[in-house]
Amino acid sequence: MTKEELWQATLAQLQFQISKANFATWFKGTKIASISKDNEVIIEVPNTFAKEWIENKYKDIILKIVHSIEPNIKSIVFIISKEKSKKEEEKVNKINENQLLFSDLKINPISNLSSKYTFENFIVGSFNELAYAACWAVSENPGTIYNPLFIYGGVGLGKTHLLQATGNKILNLWPNKKVKYTQAEEFITAIVENIKNNEIANLKKKLKDIDVLIIDDVQFFAGKDKTQEEFFHIFNYLYQNQKQIILSSDRPPKAIPAIEERLRSRFEGGMICDIGIPDFETRMAILKLKCEQNNINLMQEVLEYIASNIQTNIRELEGALNRLVIYSKINKKEITLEDAKKILENLISSPKKTTDFQTILKTVASFYNIKEEDILKNVRLKEIVKPRQIVMYFLREELKESYPSIGRKFKGKDHTTVMYACKQIEKLLKEDPTLNQELNLIRQRIYSASL
Ligand code: ADP
Ligand code: MG
């Protein structure tokens, strides 16, 4: 068996043991470089971050498969492809302005998609694996398997990236398909404008030509009744004609306030996937990918410092990296851990993040699309009572305030009312997993708001 055949046979087995998404991400461009005299297989991978990732996650499975095909083989090692490592050497600290930032914007005027978002530059870990696999599947078979596809997750965790990558991939596979990406807010404005000018029929006609409609951040539909109605009709038309619809939101359909029931049930009618928070290893992989893409070399300990301190937002990871790059460019020096700590001081808050009453109140009110003053007043509507209890719960949990002091913030409510509210939320949390998700999303926003 030649080394090429051995690698083919290995990959053929491997792809059944790991998810399709991970297989595509990590094993493209790999090969067996050689097999040494003492039966060690030397596997070439395209870059450093792929090397580390594969070594950490897949080395054992690969060795097992290779060994089952060629029993002589007892060990494997990974090396970085030569062409690439030469390039890596050259790039040490050679940073120029064009490479500086991640926002090399090329937007396709028809689809509205930016070419910078691809599956190839998207890191997959357990936090987003399901969403990635669903998007991948949809891109291979638009309009047939998961329709609509609904992706949700907190701020800066890759929803827009994933949606746009899916659109780009579809255009790649089917250049004749009409793909349209739009932010919900833009889409709402377009609908409102067209209603005003009596041109809604025109807009609908244009939309009906589309094969794939991607709408980002649909939580903004909350409370926009007329728009929801028009969108409902557009949605039905596209859906009935097997056109693919892909949606994202910062929360699951159930938790979007002020949205018509029939629209919510449409959102829930296909596949719903969430994106969680990346673990440390994945955050490192993301940082390494970004360094790679931007031809930057940073010390391992600096990357580890960023990855351990920025945990819940990939956009902030990128932001931290940007700052270091700019600093190193201006000062023409390699960044040490001490430099990094100084430069990122106000981005990386102390390990225990802090917040305050106003932020909690504001965040909860905006999450549920209600007024802050209604939360504070004695309004007894169901839509208000739960958010009010949640504010009380957060004041207790996050700020460790006493029951009487919380009560005073709510027009002098008795401390037993506050106690009851906190108990009530704790009880609901045990019964209702979606409430748990909801509170996590709110908590994430509370802390990103007060950064
Ligand atoms: P969201 O829409 O959920 O707020 P974005 O898609 O805008 O988040 O992601 C924020 C930034 O992080 C973008 O620059 C995006 O390219 C990057 N990013 C997010 N997820 C990943 C990932 N899994 N791998 C690589 N980059 C990512
Ligand atoms: Mg987004």
The CATH superfamily of the largest domain appears as P-loop containing nucleotide triphosphate hydrolases
Shape: globular
- The CATH topology of the largest domain, please? Rossmann fold
* Biggest sheet architecture: 5 strands, parallel
What pattern of helices and strands is seen along the backbone? HHEEHEHHHEHEHHEHEHEHHHHHHHHHH
Strand order of the largest sheet: 5-6-7-4-8
Bound molecules: adenosine-5'-diphosphate, magnesium ion
Per CATH, the architecture of the largest domain is: 3-Layer(aba) Sandwich
Number of domains: 4
Radius of gyration of CA atoms, rounded to a whole number: 25 Å
Termini separation: 58 Å
Question: Can you identify the CATH class of the largest domain?
Answer: Alpha Beta
Structural class: alpha/beta
Oligomer: single chain
Q: In percent terms, what proportion of residues is strand?
A: 5-15%
Average pLDDT level? 87
* Uncertain residue segments: 88-104
Note the total helix count.
21
Summed up:
With 451 residues, this protein is of the alpha/beta class.
Topology:
Layout: H1 3-17, H2 20-27, E1 31-35, E2 40-45, H3 48-69, E3 75-80, H4 82-91, H5 97-100, H6 129-140, E4 149-153, H7 159-173, E5 179-183, H8 184-196, H9 200-208, E6 212-216, H10 225-240, E7 244-249, H11 261-267, E8 271-275, H12 280-293, H13 300-309, H14 314-331, H15 337-343, H16 357-367, H17 372-376, H18 382-399, H19 403-409, H20 415-431, H21 433-449
Parallel strand pairs: 2-3, 4-7, 4-8, 5-6, 6-7
Antiparallel strand pairs: 1-2
Helix pairs in contact: 1-3, 3-12, 6-7, 8-9, 12-13, 12-14, 16-18, 16-21, 18-20, 19-20, 20-21
